[in-house]
Specification:
This is Catalase. By secondary structure, the protein is of the alpha+beta class. The chain has 6 helices and 10 strands, in the order H-E-E-E-E-H-H-H-E-E-E-H-E-E-E-H.
């Protein structure tokens, strides 16, 4: 078995143009969050992505008994407590019967005292539509301005979207688009969930995948997703295998090419995520909307790797700070 490639901070470094574009993007995020309650017609400020919360739940991460010995220092307990948020990727909360099948499965891993170990925001689509940090920042800024300035930003949005299209023609991307379309009516818990970008595991670099065990993909098809999740956890437990891939070489497992899948790196099972029936958190609780899953709040040896991943740090912070400030003003002590 080859030795995994070691982490290097150069994987994360942004150039000067990208840093300037990030500052512009951060201002557009703050503007979006400040207007998000009216954009989504809700009585609180929402996230800048994955705005719709379907449910939040308590869970447990059980470490596999046959985990490779070299991984044991990172998983020194038999189990870890989890807080999990199910969401939709859309920036705007829509009260429609059908949402686009772009789902989030964000996991907060905690120690026995409730302290944070790691945040892993996973999604059901394993790839990213562009490898260019500049193109992504310009597009994300255009999307934010489209919502905050309404139709006056449509031309900029279209212009930036066109620039992204060529990167979506990779074989991996097209294959996964067709796959997600074929599963568009499937139950949210029946999907695999992915880290998209890479994460550190000590000095090594990995990708993460969650694979559900025995979930009926046709469950709750006549229900809204929020109601389907509530119904499912009234009677059922949920289990998913936690698998990781190591980065051995940049040709087969590229860190900064997020529109292709890793190959020639076998999946290794490290444990299982379990959510027991009756474990959903109170949907009316204000704390659900203040949960933060910024992966850069994780311990250093679990943090994200890569240039586009690096953007998340500042984006999450701006979104969270703005959201928290506004929600405290709107609802006073209830959001503390």
């Amino acid at each position: 078995m080859p030795q995994p490639l070691k982490y290097n901070k150069k994987f994360d470094e942004l150039n000067e143009e990208e840093k300037k574009l990030l500052e512009i993007n951060k201002r557009s995020i703050a503007d979006f969050v400040e207007q998000s309650s009216s954009i989504s017609d809700v009585n609180y400020a929402t996230r800048n992505a994955h705005a719709k919360t379907y449910a939040a739940a308590d869970g447990t991460f059980f470490i596999d008994q046959n985990i490779p010995e070299e991984l044991l220092p990172f998983f020194d307990n038999e189990k870890f407590d989890l807080t999990i948020r199910f969401s939709n990727a859309h920036l705007k909360i829509k009260n429609t019967e059908k949402d686009i099948p772009a789902y989030g499965f964000a996991i907060k891993v905690k120690d026995e005292n409730g302290g944070l170990i790691a945040n892993f925001p996973l999604v059901n689509f394993p790839l990213f539509p562009t490898n260019s940090v500049s193109h992504f920042l310009k597009l994300f800024t255009a999307i934010n301005r489209f919502y905050t300035k309404r139709w006056s930003g449509i031309f900029s949005l279209v212009s930036q979207a066109v620039k992204i299209i060529p990167a979506t023609f990779s074989l991996s991307f097209v294959k996964n688009v067709l796959k997600i379309l074929s599963k568009r009516n499937d139950f949210i818990l029946s999907f695999d969930y992915h880290s998209v970008g890479a994460y550190r595991l000590g000095e090594n670099m990995i990708k993460i995948k969650l694979v559900p065990v025995s979930v009926n993909k046709k469950f709750g098809r006549k229900l809204k997703i929020k109601d389907a999740l509530k119904s499912y956890f009234q009677e059922n437990d949920y289990t998913a295998e936690v698998l990781i891939q190591f980065c051995y070489d940049l040709k087969n497992q590229p860190i900064n090419r997020l529109n292709v899948e890793w190959k020639n790196s076998p999946y290794i099972k490290i444990g299982e995520v379990k959510i027991n029936k009756g474990s959903l958190l109170d949907p009316a609780s204000c704390t659900n909307e203040l949960l933060s899953f910024n992966p850069f709040e994780s311990k250093i040896f679990f943090q994200p790797v890569g240039k586009i991943q690096k953007l998340r740090d500042e984006a999450y912070k701006v979104s969270m700070q703005t959201r928290k400030k506004i929600n405290k003003l709107l609802h006073g002590k209830s959001y503390e």
